Amino acid sequence: MQITIQQSSDLLDSTIEVIHEKLNKLETYYDRIERADVYIKEDDGTAANGYKVEVRLAIPGNDLFAENSNQSIKKGIADVAEALRRQIKKHKEKEQDHQAVNPNTQQAAVMPVDDETDEDIAVSEEQL
Q1: Tens of pLDDT along 66-109?
Q2: Domain range 2-111, CATH architecture
């Protein structure tokens, strides 16, 4: 999974490691995550000296998104990762329910072909 981090201020190496660790762990729950976009901003004043952490996971279908405001970036990432884990679980359950209701969805897309003879396929000289 590709992880891009956009921040309003410089981050410590340990913070970047925590971000990668927490987000890479999400792949153990769902292996079709394409990328994670992380946005870290100094909070708009709702929490004194806090940070707003937002993460968008690109997966097939609709993306997953979570945000958290916290005094600590690391705690914010942990909370966002947990929220995304719950969303992934819910997404997988919906996916499995959909497949259980329609187990032939992939097979229905492929229409069975009746036995065709070469005469049915061949183009006569009159048709040319």
Answers
A1: 999 989 999 999 999 999 999 999 999 888 887 777 665 554 44
A2: 2-Layer Sandwich (3.30)
